[in-house]
Structure formats: C-alpha cells, structure tokens
Design goal:
The complex is a heterodimer. Helices cover about 45% and strands about 10% of the residues of chain A. Chain A is α/β, with parallel strands linked by helices. In chain A, helix 5 links the parallel strand 2 and strand 3. In chain A, helix 1 packs antiparallel against helix 2, helix 1 crosses helix 3 and helix 2 runs parallel beside helix 3. Chain B contains 13 helices and 14 strands. The longest helix of chain B has 13 residues. Chain B starts with a strand and ends with a helix. At the A-B interface, helix 4 and helix 5 of A face helix 4 and helix 6 of B.
C-alpha cells in the first residue's frame, strides 16, 4: 500500500464517520460511539481486503463479513452504500418506518451476510460460514467484527473454543477494543482484562494493533490469511467515538444521538479532520 | 402393535438422505441419544459434534444455512428450545434460514431424568416464532417421512421426537405439511392428538365405541401450520372436541385448536395435557398416566362432554 492509497482510505473512513453521524442524527437514534470506533476497520476490509462484488452480493466465492456488534449498523450501512451495494440516498431512511435499513443489520439488505444485533450470535454464525467454506473446499475468508463489551456473552467463548477445535483458519475475528460498553468502561462493568491473552490461551493466533491505523489493520489482516490450522484474532485498540471530541472515551454516546448543537460540532470537527488529511 | 423408536427412524433417514451433499448435521454431545451418530458413520465430513454448546450449535447452523447448506441440528427438546431460544429467534427464524431443528426427548416420556430434562413447553415456544414450522410426528414411520419431506421445504423447522418407542400406527399414511390425518370417522365427538398420544386416542375411541359413543380421531402432526379446515369441519360435525398431547395445556395443540374453534364458535373443547406443572422422574408411560395423559382420561373427559 502506498501513501496515496492510505490517504484515500483515511478519507473514506472520515466520510463513513460523517455519514454515520448524519444517519444517527437524522434518525435521532442509533449508536455513534461504536460506529466511529469501527470505521477504519470497516473501510480497510471493504475497500482494500475483501473479495466481493456489489453487483452480485450472493456470489458464492465471496469473502464474508459479519458485523457481530450489530449496533454499529450506521457505519456498516454507510460502507455498503459507498461500496455500491445500494444507493447512498437510502441512508436517509436509516431506522425509519418502511425502511430497508433496520436499526440492526438484516440479510434483506444487499451486502449484509448475516442478521445481527443480539450480541455474540454474529460471531457464532461466522463459524458456520467458515465451516461451510471448509466443507466446500472454497478459498474465501470470513471476517467478523466483535465488540469488546460483546465479549461478556457466553456464546462468544463457546464459539472461541469451537473455532479452534474445527481448525477454522479461514476465520478472522477483529475485536473492536474501544474499552466502553453501554453502561460504562468495560473494566468497570465486567472486567475483560487482556483479551489477547485469553484468546491465545484458547488457541487463537492473535495480533494486537492500533485499530485506527489503516496500515496496521491492513498488514495484520494480510498476515492472518495464512492457512495454518488456527483461527486468527486481531485485537484492535480503538477509541470509542473516534473523531468527535466529546464522544471520545466515554460511554455517554454508546447509544445516544447528538442534539443539534452537538451535531454541528461533530460535523465541523470531522470536516476539519478531512482537510487535515487532504493537506498532508 | 409393533413399537419403534422415532430417534432411530431419524438416524436411519439421515443416512438415507445423506447422499444429498448439501446436508450437514450438528449435535451437542448427544449424538448417541438423538441417533445423529448414524449419519456421522456414513458422512463424517459433514457431521460436527459441537460439544455441549446448544447456543453456538444453532449459531453455526445458521451460518452454514446462510452458505447454502441444509442443516439438521439436534439435541434434547428442553435444551434446543430453552437454552438456544434467542439464537433460534434472531439467527434462524428472523432470517428464515434453512435449519431443521430436530429435537428428541420431548415431553414427560424422557422419564427417569426428571423435570430438568422434560420439555413441556417447547411446542409453544417454537410456535410463537414467525417463519418457524412445528411438526410433532406420531410414530417412527411418520418420523421418516417428515425428516425426508422437510429437506426439500426451504426454511426453518422444529421437529419434536420422543425418547420412548411408540406404536407404529401410521405406516400406511403420507405426510403433507399443514395437513392432518383422519384416523377414524364418528359423529358424537372428535379426539385430536399430536405426537405419541395417538395410540391413546385410538384406544379410547374403541372403548367409547363399546359404550355406544361414536368418535372421530384426528392425528395432527403439523402444529404450525395447523390444519384449520379439518378442525373446523370436525368441530361443526361433532360439536365436541377433546385434544390430547404430551405437552402443557398452554400454547400447544389444545390451545391452537381452542383458538380456532372459539373463533368459529362451533364446539366445546376439553384439553388433555400437562396442567401447568413440571414433571418428575419415573418410567415414561407411567408418568403420562400420573399427569393425566392416557386413554382413560380421554374417556373420562369424553363422558363429561357428552353428558353436558
């Protein structure tokens, strides 16, 4: 990846953040914090890594992606629209009545590989997709983005044991380690401790990265593609609410939309960030 | 009457249909009880023992189905519908994916393992889910037909099988989703049964005949979709209906029949089933008797209905 490419992806991630804020403000509902923390990961996956075809969303040989932390739907839908799965205009209908874009992702949306929202389940279903790939001798990879708060769920650890047992080396889990869940800091609500060590102990091949560095995201995923009998985890250290000062490192904007004044401030900050990237 | 095992019928049928390479079978460390092990002998590359992980079993089933597989996922009824409920709701029913949940050990006839293992509310739990179809086969031959048929019907199913061997009364019949089977025609009252209580309904009907009461017997394997037309037809014809099932009287066959008949206003209904209580340990068929599920209870309720 060259500097220009990285710059382009950073600009796209910035756009995803702005679109997410627009959508959540427009709906007066949604989850800004976890959408902003996941933007760089989602952009790198869809615009640099994954083999997909927006014109043929069900292409059998495509790479799969499951947004296990389904509440980051705003960022996810924005990425899918930007990628060309459906018109950008559709984003205005996010979370509104008669809309295709439900509060949490559903497979009725072109490009969405699995319905999610009830935490932990997306991760579990991603194992099924990886297993199907193995049975069919296909080359595709399955990516799943899991929230750190989500790791409170027992099914996550059921699946973590299972993926190792079934040698799902075509499965790459990315943990959005933003340190906050709805009620507060993850270490105060239910201390998760060192996610990497836990996953390693389960038999996963683990990498730890800065989840806002496009380069680190890209390199860690490329390194994780090796078919060596082990499922891969990338623990991405992220900032909840990344890119909007007052949303950063707090649980306050986990599931709350900004008001008008806050919205304008958010857009201004993201615009400034965009100009900064462009002038680099 | 010859008695056969529904579980074994399930295993045998999985072996037969297993040549369809879209089929994948999952179990949660109960394969020797559910008989999915029979599939694993012939098709080990498409059988996965998930360990004692019912939630993850259903999640993985959903992911496999989303990738084009026809998934048969098994465990005991109490765990399938209880422990894994939310996964079934979100990832299988809402998504309308091709997962056939075939649960064995439904109802009181689990026997000695006791109340912790006796699912008495599972039919209700699964029937409440949009997109989910609920089938309770009456014997082993019907189990074979059901397991085979649902392979070709896209979308999720819940099939409830029994632990005990049951009399094979349905050898000569077919299975059609949403259709009941009329076993006997009579004009005084109608007995509707689902699952393994069919032999009780048949026995009661014979004894009632000796007492001069002419009863119809209907076997209702398909709880959802249910055969509304036949319920209304016999409700109007006989004006009196007894339902019997190895399940709570709430949210199962009795409830569904009552709802339909109440809307039609055509009959009086009495439900036989477990009366809002948990079960206990003991031999399966004795437990049924103790909890009021037997041919004698059908006769008792019939006489009350006739006298009124």
């Amino acid at each position: 990846m060259n500097i220009e490419e990285i710059k382009e992806l950073r600009l796209r991630a910035n756009e995803i953040r702005r679109l997410s804020i627009d959508m959540i403000y427009g709906a007066q509902s949604g989850h800004p914090g976890g959408s902003l923390s996941a933007a760089d990961i989602l952009i790198t996956l869809y615009f640099k890594i994954m083999k997909v075809d927006p014109a043929n969303p069900q292409w059998p040989d495509r790479d799969r992606f499951v947004l296990s932390k389904g509440h980051a739907s705003a960022a996810y839908y924005a990425v899918l629209a930007l990628k060309g799965y459906f018109p950008m205009d559709e984003l205005k209908n996010f979370r509104k009545i008669n809309s295709m874009l439900q509060g949490h992702p559903t497979i009725h949306v072109p490009g969405v590989d699995m319905t999610t929202g009830s935490l932990g389940q997306g991760f579990s279903t991603s194992l099924g997709m990886a297993l199907a790939g193995k049975i069919d001798g296909k080359d595709y990879h399955v990516y799943t983005l899991v929230g750190d708060g989500e790791m409170d769920e027992g099914i996550v650890w059921e699946a973590a044991i299972n993926a190792v047992h079934n040698k799902l080396d075509n499965l790459i889990m990315i943990v959005d380690r933003n340190m906050y869940q709805l009620d507060g800091n993850t270490e105060k609500i239910l201390s998760l401790g060192e996610v990497s060590k836990k996953l390693e102990a389960f038999g996963w091949e683990v990498r730890e990265i800065d989840g806002h560095s496009i380069t680190e995201i890209y390199i860690s995923i490329m390194e994780s593609m090796q078919r060596n009998g082990k499922p891969k985890a990338i623990v991405a250290r992220t900032v909840k609410g990344k890119g909007v000062s007052y949303m950063q490192n707090t649980h306050e904007f986990h599931g709350k939309p900004p008001n008008k004044e806050q919205y304008e401030k958010a857009i201004k900050e993201l615009e400034e960030e965009k100009n900064r990237i462009m002038s680099e | 009457m010859e008695k056969e095992s529904q579980r074994e019928a399930y295993g045998v049928t999985l072996q037969e249909i297993g040549k369809n390479d879209r089929i994948v079978v999952l179990d949660a460390d109960l394969s020797s009880s559910t008989h999915t092990y029979m599939f694993s002998k012939l098709y080990p590359e498409r059988f996965f023992n998930m360990g004692i992980q019912e939630q993850n079993e259903m999640g993985v089933a959903a992911g496999l189905a989303r990738s084009g597989k026809i998934v048969y996922a098994s465990t005991f009824a109490v765990f399938a519908t209880g422990r894994a409920y939310d996964v079934i709701r979100q990832s299988i029913a809402y998504t309308n994916l091709n997962v056939k949940i075939v649960a064995t050990h439904g109802g009181l006839t689990v026997g000695e393992d006791g109340a912790t293992h006796q699912a008495l509310e599972d039919i209700g739990i699964m029937s409440g889910l949009p997109n989910m179809r609920v089938i309770v086969p009456g014997d082993a031959p019907e189990t074979k037909r059901v397991i085979r048929e649902i392979m070709d019907i896209e979308g999720p199913f819940y099939v409830r099988l029994s632990r005990e061997k049951v009399p094979s009364l349905l050898k000569e019949f077919g299975f059609e989703l949403g259709k009941a089977i009329v076993m006997k025609e009579g004009s005084d009252l109608t007995i509707i049964s689902t699952g393994i209580t069919l032999s009780m309904a048949m026995e009661a009907s014979s004894k009632l005949k000796d007492m001069g009461i002419d009863s119809s017997v209907i076997h209702m394997p398909s709880i959802k979709p249910i055969d509304r037309d036949i319920i209304i037809k016999y409700s109007r014809l006989t004006g009196k209906i007894i339902t019997i099932e190895e399940h709570s009287i709430y949210n199962g066959l009795g409830s569904r029949v009552s709802e339909i008949v109440a809307e039609d206003g055509s009959a009086r209904v009495r439900r036989i089933g477990v009366n809002d209580t948990f079960g206990e340990s003991g031999p399966g068929w004795e437990l049924l008797k103790k909890y009021g599920i037997s041919s004698d209870h059908i006769i008792e309720e019939s006489l009350k209905l006739i006298k009124r």
